[in-house]
Amino acid sequence: MPPFAKFSIQTPRLLVRPITLEDAADMFLIRSDLETLRYQNYDLETSVSQTREWIQQRLNTDLCFVIELAPHASDQSSSTSPDQISGLNPPKVIGSVGSSTRTGLPDLGYGFNRAYWGKGYATEALRGVVDSYWKEFPNGYPGLKEEDRHMLKACTDWDNDASKAVLKKCGFKLYDKVEYIDKKGVKNTSHEYRLQRPIKL
């Protein structure tokens, strides 16, 4: 397991901790929701076993974390009941955040259960991960090329205004616009944001 994945991160309202196979059921609620899938690059999952396989693939390759409400913040959970959690107890895991380092420059991504959108949790979790990343790896993640050690990136679709707002709040700057063919075969544009390692850690 990568060294960073052994750490948990506490923010004012959230606990960000390493993902485990026991998180599959809660993560399935996110990865099987069509509205959440709209801006993601994976296919809709139809069983918890598929989600468990996805987790297994990332346990020893990616910096992958799940997000829980801190105990004192439990009263801030959603008062609405979107269809993906209707009739169920509120999930323990409300989202995930992490970075893939398999293709060079660390590429951050995040996703949340739709019942917890619009509460600032994505910004809070991403800030916590970014700050902890540089504290754990002041010279960049081990094994990366020198040119990839001092920068983080994150990509989002051109029309995903909520995600772009999160990245900007966390200090990311627009770096490039890249056209690609999405999973529906439609030409789309991705906005790539980058964040330079802070001068003072």
Considering the chains and any ligands shown, give keywords for the structure.
201 residues, alpha+beta, eight-stranded mixed sheet, 5 helices, globular
Number of strands: 8
End-to-end distance = 25 Å
List segments where confidence is low: pLDDT < 50 over at least 5 consecutive residues: none
Number of helices, counting only DSSP H or I runs of 4 residues or more: 5
Global mean pLDDT: 87
Strand content: 25-35%
Kindly report the spatial arrangement of strands forming the biggest sheet: 1-2-3-4-5-6-8-7
Order of helices and strands: EEHHHEEEHEHEE
| Residues in helix, % | 10-25%
Describe the structure.
The chain has 201 residues and is an alpha+beta fold. Helices cover 24% and strands 27% of the residues. It is built from 5 helices and 8 strands. It has helices at residues 24-31, 34-37, 48-58, 121-136, 161-169; strands at residues 9-10, 14-18, 63-69, 93-100, 107-112, 151-157, 173-181, 187-196. The protein has an 8-stranded mixed beta sheet, with helices on both faces. Strand 1 and strand 2 (14-18) form a beta hairpin. Helix 1 (24-31) packs across helix 3 (48-58). It is globular, with a radius of gyration of 16 Å.
